[in-house]
Specification:
CATH class of the domain at 4-90 in chain B: Alpha Beta
Oligomer: heterodimer
Helix content of chain A: 40-55%
CATH topology of the largest domain in chain A: Cytochrome-c3 Hydrogenase, chain B
Strand order of the largest sheet of chain A: 1-2-3
Distance between the termini of chain B: 55 Å
Largest sheet of chain B: 5 strands, mixed
Strand content of chain B: 25-35%
Largest interface: A-B, 28 and 30 residues
Shape of chain A: globular
Number of helices of chain A: 15
Radius of gyration of chain A: 22 Å
CATH class of the largest domain in chain A: Mainly Alpha
Number of helices of chain B: 3
Number of strands of chain B: 7
CATH architecture of the domain at 4-90 in chain B: 2-Layer Sandwich
Strand order of the largest sheet of chain B: 1-2-5-4-3
CATH architecture of the largest domain in chain A: Orthogonal Bundle
Order of helices and strands of chain A: EEEHHHHHEEHHHHHHEEEHHHEEH
CATH superfamily of the domain at 4-90 in chain B: NADH:ubiquinone oxidoreductase Nqo5 subunit
Largest sheet of chain A: 3 strands, antiparallel
Structural class of chain B: alpha/beta
Number of domains of chain A: 2
Structural class of chain A: alpha+beta
Distance between the termini of chain A: 52 Å
Helix content of chain B: 10-25%
Shape of chain B: globular
Chain lengths: 406, 148
């Protein structure tokens, strides 16, 4: 009988929206059980929110996640607007969608780079993050900040996108088309990437539904949900875009969905800019107070639906504020996807739901469950994954995706 | 066109266990149901309407502990919230985690933060709070006082 070893991955990571602690139970090289623990950095945001005014609450939720730093505010302002039946000017809706989609592109590029790093293609990592800089530059041009844009407020947005800035935004946006095509061609068509990600970490459609999976994690499994289309908010009802889905639910399909979604995001932003050149008017309806009531706001963040519930008693503070991030639903799917996988593949499988894995790996160590001796550290885990790629290279004679023409 | 057909269908399926009803808008429907009807109601939402479990919210109010189960009807563009009022002295509900695995974590969270007990939960242990968190100390209750 083979010896069971526990490989703890986690828990702390400064960049994670939800620090997680994965305990991989492995026998030889095969994962036989996964236990997930949360709460190592529980900040009590919901309780804290009850002591903030509705305006302050938006800044608070912006700090839940550094990557989704406009998704939570959009969902939160929509919950406040739903509670108070507050109207939002049309121009503000287009600005919300434009900023939200820019965030989606930078988040997907961030993930793509990390995914490349985990399977040993650091060139993808470097290139993806290099072009992510262009997206952050656009966001800085619009909001003054690379992250934490401070754009949203109940009733509208805080800052307009100036007409004089739109040509510069368009230019940067056009410049992203070719790099994303390059990633699409280099990654999606590469046989070595196929070997590392196809049929790896499969989440079936039934499991995606049962676990309430969201975003690219659900859509890669053929679970065709997207809050932007299904529950139109911001300007999405006025915009033309496709919801990208795949069928197999493996790591490869999750890559495909995210890459193709970036093209849709560019389309959406271009349409928003077209409208911002035409649609004038105010960007804020300046609501003076939020009447007693309750409201729900949800927004399709890069990782899936962000959900906020707000209850007001007519004062200037919420008496209850519930926040549910998409990772809360997506991370438990790892219990299904990682079973039967090898340790070398576990790294990319756990990363495939995009739980901001980049720093989790720093804390990873393998401990002998009997004597407590440390067997592997985080670098070893990544090394194991990279070595698998190297073995495949040697066996097949393939050299992986090349990014030569950029 | 309104979404009256959704609320009518839900009420028809759940019968007398629906105690109150509020259609706030075409996108938001709230139904007050009895605690004992939760499991049946969840089956109706999942099987009859193909609803997606979004999350559950617990609120400590003067009338008792209010629990809301939010279900998204994605094809209809509508959120249906099932609301249950529990007695504050011993709030208890049947777990729906076995019929809806998506609810497993949030039930653990509501137990530790609000002190709601879920009968039949497959893996009830702390989710966010420390394993040695004192029993009976529920941070999201109104009477909770932070101690340094």
């Amino acid at each position: 009988m083979s010896k069971r070893t526990i490989i703890p991955i986690g828990p702390y990571h400064a960049l994670q929206e939800e620090p997680e602690f994965f305990k991989l139970h492995v026998e030889d090289e095969t994962v036989v059980h996964l236990d997930i623990e949360l709460g190592y950095n529980h900040r009590g945001i919901e309780k804290l929110s009850e002591s903030k005014t509705f305006e302050e609450t938006i800044f608070l939720v912006e700090r839940i996640c550094g990557i989704c730093s406009t998704s939570h505010p959009i969902a939160c302002v929509q919950a406040v607007e739903d509670a108070g039946c507050i109207n939002v000017p049309e121009r503000a809706l287009f600005i919300r969608s434009a900023v939200g989609e820019l965030e989606r592109i930078h988040s997907h590029l961030l993930w793509l780079g990390l995914a490349g790093h985990f399977i040993g293609f650091n060139t993808i990592w470097m290139w993806a993050w290099r072009f992510r800089e262009d997206v952050l530059n656009i966001l800085e041009l619009i909001s003054g900040n690379r992250n934490h844009y401070g754009m949203m407020k109940p009733g509208g947005v805080r800052r307009d996108i100036n007409r004089t800035d739109i040509p510069a935004v368009r230019k940067l946006l056009d410049g992203l088309q070719d790099p994303i095509k390059m990633f699409r061609d280099a990654v999606i068509q590469d046989p070595l990437i196929h070997a590392r990600t196809k049929d790896v970490g499969i989440l079936t459609r039934e499991m995606a539904i049962a676990y309430g999976a969201l975003g690219p994690t659900a859509r890669a499994s053929g679970y065709d949900i997207d809050v932007r289309r299904d529950h139109p908010h911001a300007a999405y009802a006025m915009l033309d875009f496709d919801v990208v889905t795949c069928e197999n639910g493996d790591v490869f399909d999750k890559v495909v969905v995210r890459i193709l979604e970036m093209f849709e995001s560019i389309r959406i932003i271009q349409q928003c800019l077209d409208q911002l050149e035409k649609v004038g008017g105010p960007i804020d309806s300046n609501p003076k107070f939020v009447p007693a009531g309750e409201g729900i706001g949800h927004y399709e963040a890069p990782r899936g639906e962000v959900f906020h519930y707000i209850r007001s008693d007519g004062s200037n503070r919420p008496i209850r504020h519930k926040v549910r991030a998409p990772s809360f639903m997506n991370v438990p799917t790892n219990r299904e996807t990682v079973l039967g996988a090898t340790v070398a593949d576990a790294t990319i499988i756990l990363a495939a739901v995009d739980p901001c894995y980049c720093c989790t790996e720093r804390m990873a160590v393998a401990v002998d469950s009997h004597c407590g001796e440390r067997l592997l550290d985080s670098r070893d885990l990544i090394r194991l994954s990279c070595e698998k790629t190297d073995r495949l290279m040697a066996q097949t004679g393939l050299c992986g995706p090349s990014l030569p023409n950029y | 066109m309104g979404k009256d057909h959704i609320s009518k269908a839900v009420r028809k399926q759940l019968g007398k266990s629906v105690q109150g009803f509020w259609q706030k808008s075409d996108q938001r429907i709230y139904l007050d149901i009895e605690a004992r009807a939760l499991e049946q109601a969840s089956h109706v939402m999942l099987d009859e309407f193909g609803a997606r479990f979004q999350i559950a919210t617990g609120v400590d109010t003067s009338a008792g502990i209010e629990v809301m189960y939010h279900w998204a009807l994605d094809e209809e563009g509508c959120v249906v919230t099932l609301r249950i009022l529990l007695d504050k002295t011993s709030p208890k509900l049947d777990s729906i985690a076995l019929i809806c695995p998506a609810a497993e974590w949030i039930e653990r969270e509501m137990w530790e933060l609000l002190g709601i007990h879920f009968d039949g939960h497959p893996d009830m242990r702390h989710l966010l709070l420390a394993d040695d968190w004192p029993e009976g100390n529920y941070p999201m209750r109104r009477n909770h006082e932070a101690t340094s």
